Amino acid sequence: MEHVLLLNAKAVRDLVLASLLTLVSLSAAAQQVNLTSGEWPPYTSESIYQNGFAAEVVRQAYQAVGIKVHIGHFPWKRSYHYAETGTGLGGDVWHGSIAWVKTPERETLFHYSTPLLSDNMVLYSLKKAPIEWTTLTDLAGLTIGATEHTNYEILESAQNKGLIKLQRAGNYDILFQRLLAERIDAVPQLKSVGEFYLSNNVKGADKDKITRSDSILSTREFHLILNKANPNNKQFAADFDRGLAIIKQNGVYQDLINKLNRGRYNN
């Protein structure tokens, strides 16, 4: 009987140990956030250092609170769709996406983090027809390029007032080609993104033809978005905010800003 009790005790101990190991394993597996993104260098890209500044901010913030990050790179439309529905091809789980501005529609679908980056939007134009402006009326009569599915609050307001015309295109390659061909007067772009684009995509004499305005259209803040369909995502949003506060306090975030300003994410 004593041997039976000892065996039973050992079996119970082994079962408890196995259960604990399983719980630890499941807990570790749960502490990973799967995020989508697209091509938007120097902030996000599959092919640049650490997948870009925004991606590294997200990784460092989550790492500060013990959470791993997996980033999948897709065309932006698909990236947003996977983030919204929470699933991709083959049933892959996607919690959210990097990095988006707030809109009323998106706020009904996603938990927003505190801003992970901000940048100033300015106008790029030809040097022979530079654009400097103080008020919207200074832009009267201009045709300004714009990408599809991007909100340009100030410029859209100017268009609604009949001051300017917005001409949309699918990407910045098309817009800058139109600018160089003098089919449009200006291209609005975030300063860091615009400088990256000109350095890497416009060469030689064409690059020398383009300048940018010192006037700021707007300062845009970008967030991590986590869909409301996943019950874990409210906590993951809070975890990110906590981690971001940590890396801002300990100097890691400023180090990343310094790398961005030095051009470390340009290739």
TrEMBL record:
Organism: Shewanella maritima
SUPFAM superfamilies recorded: Periplasmic binding protein-like II
Organism domain of life: Bacteria
Name under which the protein is recorded: Transporter substrate-binding domain-containing protein
Record keywords, A-Z: Signal
PANTHER family given in the database record: ABC TRANSPORTER SUBSTRATE-BINDING PROTEIN, MEMBRANE-BOUND LYTIC MUREIN TRANSGLYCOSYLASE F
Domain Solute-binding protein family 3/N-terminal: start-end pairs: 36-259
Signal peptide feature range: 1-30
InterPro entries associated with the record: Solute-binding_3/MltF_N (IPR001638)
Family of this protein: Belongs to the bacterial solute-binding protein 3 family.
